[in-house]
Amino acid sequence: MDELELEFELHPQLAQDCIVLGDFPLCRLLLMNDANFPWFILVPGAPASVKSIICRPKSRCS
């Protein structure tokens, strides 16, 4: 497996409503399929992640 490939299953509703733009070390970038607004969604790749507000220093992108 490629080191940037995430091992998680996307929620069926997100999979139906979004286009996957790419995978990063900590998240997957999605584009919501909505003609009115260009919504970009970052889905965390860590197991059991629900909401991420504060990242540990090693997790931050620089």
Question: What would your notes on this structure say?
Answer:
By secondary structure, this protein is mainly beta. It is globular, with a radius of gyration of 13 Å. The protein has a 3-stranded antiparallel β-sheet with strand order 1-2-3. Strand 1 and strand 2 form a beta hairpin. It contains 1 helix and 3 strands, in the order H-E-E-E.
Give me some keywords for this one:
single chain, 3 strands, 1 helix, 3-stranded antiparallel beta sheet, 10% helix, 62 residues
Oligomer: single chain
Strand order of the largest sheet: 1-2-3
The gross shape turns out to be globular
Topology, number of strands: 3
How is the biggest beta sheet arranged? 3 strands, antiparallel
SSE sequence, one letter per element = HEEE
The overall average pLDDT, rounded, is: 75
Which band does the percent of strand residues land in? 25-35%
Based on CA atoms alone, the radius of gyration comes out at 13 Å
Topology of this structure?
Layout: H1 12-17, E1 18-23, E2 27-32, E3 40-44
Antiparallel strand pairs: 1-2, 2-3
TL;DR of this structure?
It is built from one helix and three strands. With about 60 residues, the chain is mainly beta.
